[in-house]
Design brief:
This protein is of the alpha/beta class and about 250 residues long. The chain has two domains: about 160 residues, Rossmann fold (3-Layer(aba) Sandwich); about 60 residues. The protein is built from ten helices and six strands; from the N terminus they run H-E-H-H-H-H-H-E-H-E-H-E-H-E-E-H. Strands 3-2-1-4-5-6 form a six-stranded parallel beta sheet, with helices on both faces. Helix 4 crosses helix 5. It is globular. The protein starts with 5 loop residues before the first helix and ends in a 9-residue tail after the last helix.
Length: about 250
């Protein structure tokens, strides 16, 4: 008769415990899953230089997380409306796609966490305010089937910070959004995740965040395992008036 070792039994219990509490993990893309923000910065800087504007840290922070119409409008205003906001949004995506074609890398700890969740057969979705062409480029970096679905800005009528993207991902996966963990890095994305009703793990880089129910913060994803992710969910879900601090 074959028996399970203690580590195998513990691992099985951990998986069962996770699934008992959490239905799915919903990932943001830019700056959370992949280190794409430098590519956006290169493209934004180059595009605005054509119109004599030096792209600043303030511009980058304002546009972090999109959505694209907001970025296009900001650029059009800076360029004194030399082109329509839609032109700036489209041209920016074209330039970013060029940068993506040169190669992408994951944010520290992100690939490891994805692999751990995938190994435990935890449902995941990729939910982005970027257009489909960029979302598909990120998906191509991972084994087929890693994400049960993906939602781009072109798949919804209103993108982040509206919760529609995360609610749509939950519907496609057939899960309860309140039993989901959203992983985000921007104000726009965090607002979207919180408005959806999910527990949000925020990885802020360019800003600080006040204590908010259902929000927990971490400096990065390095060393984060599903077991700790479960603890983060449970601490927010069962104590909604507390908010974790960056550790």
């Amino acid at each position: 008769m074959t028996t399970l070792g203690q580590s195998e039994i513990t691992g099985t219990k951990n998986v069962d415990s996770f699934r008992d509490s959490v239905d799915a993990v919903l990932w943001d893309m830019d700056g959370t899953l992949i280190n794409s923000e430098p590519y956006w910065l290169i493209a934004e800087t180059a595009l605005m230089a054509r119109y004599g504007h030096a792209w600043t840290d303030e511009d980058q922070a304002h546009c972090l997380g999109g959505p694209l119409p907001k970025v296009g409008l900001h650029m059009a205003q800076l360029a004194k409306h030399a082109e329509a906001p839609e032109y700036f949004a489209d041209e920016l995506v074209r330039l970013v796609a060029e940068e993506f074609s040169k190669g992408l890398e994951f944010m520290p700890g992100a690939r490891e966490l994805v692999d751990e969740l995938r190994a435990q057969e935890i449902q995941m979705a990729l939910v982005s305010a970027s257009p489909r062409i960029l979302v598909d480029a990120a998906i191509s970096l991972l084994p087929a089937g890693t994400f049960g679905c993906s939602v781009s800005s072109q798949d919804v009528s209103i993108s982040k910070p509206d919760p529609m993207s995360y609610l749509q991902a939950a519907r496609i996966l057939g899960v309860d959004i309140t039993r989901c963990i959203v992983i985000e890095d921007s104000r726009t994305g965090i607002a979207s995740g919180l408005a959806s009703g999910a527990v949000v793990l925020g990885i802020p880089s360019l800003f600080t965040y006040p204590a908010i129910p259902n929000l927990r913060l971490r400096k990065d994803l390095i060393g984060l395992l599903p077991e700790e992710l479960l603890e983060i969910y449970q601490s927010a879900h069962h104590a909604p008036n507390r908010s974790g601090e960056v550790t």
